C-alpha cells in the first residue's frame, strides 16, 4: 500500500515542507520551540540510556498478567464542544475490518491529505467552536486584525489553542465550561508587515495577551454536537503572560525564585508556552509550561559557570530572543534577571469554577519542559500525575501525593484537594529492556521475543523538603529537575509528550513523538524503549504499574505502536495486519473514549500528510488497528482531543504554519476563507444524523 495514498482527494498545490523534527516546518521550530531541533539537545549528561542497562529476562506472559488488573478509576470528565460549514469527508483508502468494528471505532477512515480544511470521516459534520480573537469576556470587541490592540486581545480567545478540558456546569443544563490553553504566537501569521528584527511594543503586548489560557462557557445545541460560546458568563476568563500567579509547594519562596520584582519568590506574572494539560478528579485544570526558554534573551551574557550550566540544561542560550521581549520587559533579559527563567517551566493549576482563583505554579511537580500532567488514583486514594518532558533525550516523571483525595464538592473537600499537589514525592523513570542488546539494532526490527518490552523503576528525586539526589537540596531538585534526573540514571527518551492512564485497565499510555537524533554521532543509541535510530515517527508505550497500583515504584512496559508508514518494516501496530491500518506519525496528545479505545492526535506528520486524529482499540481482536478519524488544515497540529458520546473536539493549532507563509502570503485561509487571516480554533465534530453516537453504527 502506498504510504499516503490520496486517491480521490483534491490536492492543493503547496510549498514543499522540509523535514525538520518529524515533518515539522521550520516556521514551527522557530516560533514553537525556539528552534530546539537546530541546537544540540540540552541533555548532554553521561546518564545511561536504556541500552546501557543490563537487560533482565522477563516473560511476556508475566507482563500481560501485570497489565490485566482493573485499576481504581481515573478522572471522570464530561465532554463537549462548534461553527463553519461542514467539509467533505475524505475517502477511505484502506480496506479495513475483519467484520464488525469495535464500538467507538465504527467509521470509515479518512485518507491522508494536504487539504486546507478539517476533513472528517463520512457521515460526520464539523464546525468551529471558537477562533483566535473571538470574544471571551463581556464587552470584548469583535476581531479586527487591522486594528488589534493588547487590550482587545486580553478579552478575546488567545492564539494557538492546545489543551482542552470540558467540564459539566452544575445547575446549568446544556452548558459546559471549556478551558483551552494558548501555547505560543506566530507573529508572521498574526501581523501584516511584521518585522521580526524590530517588533513594536503593541505587537509584543498583543502577543503577551494572546498567550496563557481561556475559560469559556459553551452552550450545547439540542440536535447536534454544535457548541456556541456564551460570551457574558461570569466564569469566562482570560489568563495571559502578565496575569499574577502564585508559587506553592516546597520550592515556593526559594532564593532560586526571587527576582527584583518579587523578593519573596512567591509571585510571578504570567504563564508561558502552555502545551498539554490534565483535569484533576476535583475539577481543576492543569497546564504544562513547555518551551519557555525561547522567550528569554541574553543568556550568553551570563558568566557564572553554575548558572550557565543550569541555563544550558533548559535550552537557554543566545543573545536576542526570537520575539525580542527582553527589549520591553527586563524580566525577559537573563543577564538582568537570571532567576526569572526559574519561574517558568512548571505545571499550573487553575479552578475554572472560580473566576477569582489565582493560578498556582505547583513546585512539587518539578520544573522541566512540561508537556502535560494526567492523573490516576492509587489504590488507597492518593493522586498520581504522570508527566513527560518534551525534549529529545529527556525523561518521563510521576508525582505521588502524600494525602488522599477527598470526595465531593464541599468547601472543606475543595480546600483540602487544592493542597494535594504541594506535598508528595517526585519520581523519574528508568526503563530496562528484556531482549539482548544485540537484537535492538536501531532498525526497528522486533527482537526474537516478539516485542519491545521490559521493566522499569521509579527513582525518587525529592519528597517535601527531603532530597534523594546526592549534592542537591530539595529546592534545587524542584527548580533544576532535569539536572537532578541526570544524576540518578533516568532513561533518555524519544521526546515524552502526552501521557494518559486507561480509565478501565489503569495501563498508562505514553506518546514518544520522535527523536531524529537517536543514534546520531555522540548521542544515545537505540534501546528497547526507543528502538529506532533517527526516529522520525515516534512510538506509543504502555506502562503497567506493579500490582496495578499507581503508587508502585516498579513497572513493566511494552511498545504498543511503532509509528510510521505501515509499509515501512520498522513499524509495528501491536501485531495487527499492517495492510489494514492508517499511517500515523508523531503521536502527541492522547485521549480515551468511553469504550476504552485510545485516540491519538499527531503533531508534525513526517509522512507528508496533514496531521490528524486517530482511534485505535487497545484490547480484543482489533488491538492495534489504527484508523484516522479526521485531518486538520495544512500546517496545523491536532491538539486537545476530547471524545465523548455525542462529539469529538480538537484544537486546531497553528494552521498555515508553513515555511515562507505570512499574512501577505498565506498558505492556509482556514477557517474563514480567502481574504481572511488563518485563525487557530477549537472544532467540534458530530454524527450528521442527530442523536447518533460517535463511532457507533446505527
Ligand atoms: Fe507543545 Fe510537546 O508539544
Ligand atoms: Ca523484548
Ligand atoms: Ca504537544
From TrEMBL:
Cited SUPFAM superfamilies: Calcium-dependent phosphotriesterase
Classification via InterPro entries: PhoX, TAT_signal
Origin superkingdom: Bacteria
Any matching Pfam family: PhoX
PROSITE patterns tied to this protein: TAT (PS51318)
PANTHER family documented for this protein: DUF839 DOMAIN-CONTAINING PROTEIN (PTHR35399:SF2), SLR8030 PROTEIN (PTHR35399)
Protein name (Swiss-Prot/TrEMBL): Twin-arginine translocation pathway signal
Native species: Kibdelosporangium persicum
Amino acid at each position: 500500500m502506498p504510504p499516503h495514498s490520496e486517491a480521490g482527494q483534491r490536492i492543493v498545490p503547496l510549498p514543499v515542507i522540509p523535514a525538520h523534527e518529524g515533518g515539522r516546518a521550520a516556521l514551527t521550530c522557530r516560533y514553537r520551540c525556539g528552534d530546539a531541533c537546530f541546537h544540540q539537545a540540552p541533555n548532554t549528561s553521561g546518564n545511561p540510556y536504556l541500552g546501557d542497562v543490563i537487560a533482565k529476562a522477563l516473560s511476556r506472559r508475566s507482563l500481560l498478567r501485570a497489565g490485566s488488573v482493573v485499576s481504581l478509576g481515573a478522572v471522570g470528565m464530561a465532554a463537549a464542544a462548534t461553527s463553519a460549514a461542514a467539509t467533505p469527508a475524505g475517502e477511505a483508502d484502506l480496506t479495513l475490518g475483519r467484520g464488525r468494528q469495535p464500538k467507538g471505532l465504527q467509521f470509515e477512515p479518512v485518507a491522508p491529505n494536504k487539504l486546507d480544511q478539517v476533513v472528517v470521516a463520512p457521515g460526520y459534520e464539523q464546525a468551529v467552536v471558537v477562533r483566535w480573537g473571538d470574544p471571551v469576556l463581556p464587552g470584548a470587541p469583535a476581531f479586527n486584525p487591522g486594528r488589534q490592540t493588547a487590550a482587545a486581545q486580553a478579552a478575546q480567545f488567545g492564539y494557538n489553542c492546545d489543551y482542552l478540558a470540558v467540564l459539566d456546569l452544575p445547575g446549568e443544563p446544556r452548558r459546559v465550561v471549556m478551558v483551552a490553553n494558548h501555547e505560543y504566537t506566530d507573529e508572521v501569521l498574526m501581523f501584516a508587515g511584521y518585522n521580526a528584527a524590530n517588533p513594536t511594543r503593541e505587537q509584543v503586548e498583543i502577543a503577551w495577551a494572546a498567550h496563557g489560557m481561556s475559560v469559556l462557557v459553551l452552550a450545547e445545541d439540542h440536535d447536534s454536537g454544535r457548541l456556541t460560546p456564551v460570551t457574558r458568563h461570569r466564569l469566562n476568563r482570560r489568563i495571559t503572560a502578565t496575569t499574577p500567579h502564585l508559587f506553592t509547594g516546597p520550592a515556593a519562596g526559594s532564593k532560586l525564585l526571587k527576582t527584583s520584582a518579587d523578593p519573596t519568590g512567591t509571585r510571578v506574572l504570567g504563564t508561558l508556552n502552555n502545551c498539554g494539560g490534565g483535569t484533576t478528579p476535583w475539577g481543576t485544570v492543569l497546564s504544562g509550561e513547555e518551551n519557555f526558554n525561547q522567550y528569554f534573551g541574553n543568556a550568553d551574557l551570563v558568566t557564572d559557570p553554575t548558572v550557565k550550566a543550569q541555563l544550558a540544561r533548559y535550552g537557554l542560550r543566545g543573545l536576542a530572543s526570537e520575539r525580542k521581549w527582553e527589549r520591553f520587559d527586563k524580566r525577559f533579559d537573563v543577564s538582568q534577571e537570571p532567576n526569572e527563567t526559574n519561574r517558568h517551566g512548571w505545571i499550573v493549576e487553575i479552578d475554572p469554577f472560580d473566576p477569582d482563583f489565582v493560578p498556582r505554579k505547583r513546585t512539587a511537580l518539578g520544573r522541566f519542559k512540561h508537556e502535560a500532567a494526567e492523573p490516576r488514583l492509587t489504590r488507597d486514594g492518593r493522586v498520581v500525575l504522570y508527566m513527560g518532558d518534551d525534549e529529545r533525550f529527556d525523561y518521563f516523571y510521576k508525582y505521588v501525593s502524600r494525602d488522599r483525595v477527598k470526595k465531593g464538592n464541599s468547601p472543606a473537600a475543595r480546600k483540602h484537594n487544592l493542597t494535594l499537589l504541594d506535598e508528595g514525592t517526585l519520581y523519574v523513570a528508568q526503563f530496562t529492556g528484556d531482549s539482548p542488546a544485540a537484537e535492538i539494532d536501531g532498525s526497528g526490527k522486533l527482537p526474537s521475543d516478539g516485542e519491545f518490552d521490559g521493566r522499569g523503576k521509579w527513582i525518587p528525586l525529592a519528597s517535601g523538603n527531603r532530597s534523594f539526589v546526592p549534592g542537591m537540596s530539595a529546592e534545587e531538585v524542584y527548580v533544576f529537575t532535569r539536572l537532578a534526573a541526570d544524576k540518578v540514571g533516568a532513561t533518555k527518551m524519544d521526546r515524552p509528550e502526552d501521557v494518559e492512564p486507561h480509565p478501565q485497565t489503569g495501563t498508562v499510555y505514553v506518546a514518544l513523538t520522535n527523536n531524529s537524533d537517536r543514534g546520531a554521532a555522540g548521542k544515545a543509541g537505540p534501546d528497547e524503549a526507543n528502538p529506532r535510530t533517527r526516529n522520525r515517527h515516534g512510538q506509543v508505550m504502555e506502562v503497567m504499574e506493579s500490582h496495578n497500583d499507581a503508587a508502585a515504584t516498579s513497572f513493566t512496559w511494552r511498545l504498543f505502536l511503532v509509528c510510521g508508514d505501515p509499509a515501512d518494516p520498522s513499524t509495528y501496530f501491536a501485531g495487527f495486519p499492517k495492510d489494514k491500518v492508517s499511517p500515523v506519525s508523531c503521536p502527541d496528545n492522547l485521549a480515551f473514549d468511553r469504550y476504552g479505545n485510545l485516540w491519538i492526535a499527531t503533531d508534525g506528520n513526517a509522512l507528508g500528510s496533514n496531521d490528524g486524529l486517530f482511534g485505535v482499540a487497545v484490547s480484543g481482536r482489533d488491538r492495534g488497528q489504527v484508523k484516522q478519524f479526521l485531518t486538520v488544515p495544512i500546517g496545523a497540529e491536532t491538539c486537545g482531543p476530547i471524545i465523548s458520546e455525542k462529539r469529538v473536539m480538537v484544537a486546531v493549532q497553528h494552521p498555515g504554519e508553513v515555511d515562507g507563509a505570512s499574512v501577505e502570503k498565506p498558505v492556509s485561509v482556514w477557517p474563514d476563507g480567502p481574504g481572511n487571516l488563518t485563525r487557530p480554533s477549537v472544532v467540534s465534530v458530530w454524527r450528521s444524523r442527530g442523536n447518533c453516537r460517535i463511532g457507533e453504527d446505527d
